[in-house]
Design brief:
mainly alpha; Four Helix Bundle (Hemerythrin (Met), subunit A); two-stranded antiparallel ribbon; 13 helices; 2 strands
Length: 320
C-alpha cells in the first residue's frame, strides 16, 4: 500500500478500522474518490499532461454528452477528479469508469508493442490496474478489476473476499486451465451482469455455467446425457458416473430448482426475454449473490472431483 494514501484518513480512524474493518460499501466518500483518482493518474505515465488529456478524451468519446471534460485546462487530472466525485454515488458509472480505465491501459500497451516493448508494456498495464484494485481493497469497495478471457479485464462485484479467494477465482482459473470454454464464458458473463446489478441475467448465466460444466465433464468421461437434459438429469448422470457422491445429489438438485424457479418466473413475466420486461420484478441482489457464489463453489467442486476420478481411472489402466 502506498503510504501517501494513508494520509487521507486521520490516525484515529485508521487505528479503529484495523480493529473493526469497515463494511463493504458500493460508494466512495470524498477521500476514497481522491485515492481512486490519484491511482488512475499515477497509472497514466505519472499523470503527464498529454496522457491524462488522452485518457479524458477517451472517456469523453465513450460518455458523449455525459462527459464534461475541459481538456485544455486538465493539466493535473482536475477534470477527471471532478468526474469521479460526480459518479461517487452511482455504482453503475463506477463500473463503467473502471472498465474503460482497464481498456485504455490495455490499448496503450498494444500501441507500445510496435516498439518491441511487449513485456514491459503489459507489465506496466497490469501494475497500473492492480494499483487501482489496491485502492478499492483499501476502501472496502465492492468492486475489483479482474482478468477476463473475452475483454482482457472486467469489473466483478465482491461481496466476500474469502468467497472470491477460495471459490470464485479458483473456479475461473481451473476452467481456464482445463479449456472449459463454454462454462467459463457463461460464468464470467454472470459475474459481469452481477457487477452491473443485472440480477436476472446473473442468475440465468450462473445456471447455464453450472449446467455447461456438468455437460463438459460428462463428455470428457464419455458418459451420455439427453441432448436437452434438465439440470436434474445432468446431476443424476454426473452422480451415476461416480463424479458426484450420491449424498450430494439432493443438495445440487435443490440448488438447480432454486435457479430454475427464478428463471421460470422471469420467463413467464410479460415481455420476457433479455432483461426484465414490463411489470417484471427481477431477482433481488441476495438471490443473484447466492447464485453466483453457489455456482462457483459447485463448479469448482465438480471439476476437482472430475480430475480426481479421471486420474484414478488412468492409474488403473496403467497398472499391469
Amino acid at each position: 500500500m502506498d503510504p501517501r494514501w494513508r494520509l487521507h484518513k486521520p490516525r484515529i480512524q485508521r487505528d479503529a478500522e484495523k480493529l473493526s474493518p469497515p463494511p463493504i460499501s458500493e460508494t466512495l466518500d470524498t477521500n476514497s474518490a481522491v485515492r481512486l483518482t490519484s491511482a488512475i493518474c499515477r497509472g497514466l505515465d505519472g499523470a503527464t499532461h498529454c496522457t491524462v488529456k488522452r485518457f479524458c478524451s477517451f472517456l469523453g468519446m465513450h460518455l458523449g454528452q455525459e462527459g464534461h471534460f475541459n481538456i485544455a485546462s486538465n493539466c493535473h487530472g482536475t477534470a477527471l477528479q471532478s468526474y469521479v466525485f460526480d459518479i461517487s454515488k452511482d455504482s453503475i458509472k463506477i463500473v463503467r469508469l473502471l472498465t474503460w480505465y482497464a481498456q485504455y491501459q490495455l490499448s496503450e500497451a498494444a500501441i507500445r508493442l510496435e516498439d518491441d516493448l511487449e513485456l514491459h508494456a503489459h507489465n506496466w498495464a497490469n501494475a497500473c490496474i492492480e494499483a487501482v484494485n489496491e485502492v478499492l481493497r483499501y476502501d472496502a469497495m465492492a468492486y475489483r478489476l479482474v482478468e477476463d478471457s473475452e475483454d482482457g479485464y472486467a469489473v466483478h462485484k465482491i461481496t466476500s473476499e474469502a468467497m472470491v479467494e477460495t471459490a470464485i477465482q479458483p473456479a475461473l482459473q481451473l476452467m481456464r486451465d482445463r479449456k472449459m470454454k463454454e462454462p467459463l464464458e457463461e460464468y464470467e458473463a454472470a459475474l459481469k451482469h452481477y457487477a452491473r446489478n443485472e440480477t436476472d441475467d446473473a442468475v440465468r448465466q450462473s445456471s447455464h455455467a453450472f449446467e455447461s460444466a456438468m455437460k463438459f465433464v460428462l463428455k470428457d468421461v464419455k458418459k451420455s446425457a439427453p441432448a436437452h437434459a434438465k439440470p436434474s438429469e445432468l446431476i443424476k448422470a454426473v452422480s451415476d458416473a461416480g463424479i458426484l457422491p450420491s449424498s450430494m445429489q439432493n443438495n445440487w438438485n435443490n440448488f438447480a430448482e432454486v435457479l430454475q424457479g427464478v428463471i421460470t418466473l422471469r420467463n413467464k413475466a410479460p415481455g420476457a426475454g433479455h432483461g426484465p420486461g414490463p411489470g417484471e420484478v427481477p431477482p433481488d441482489i441476495e438471490t443473484a449473490e447466492y447464485a453466483i457464489n453457489t455456482a462457483g463453489s459447485n463448479i469448482l467442486y465438480l471439476a476437482r472431483r472430475w480430475l480426481a476420478v479421471r486420474n484414478k481411472i488412468r492409474r488403473r489402466t496403467k497398472t499391469p
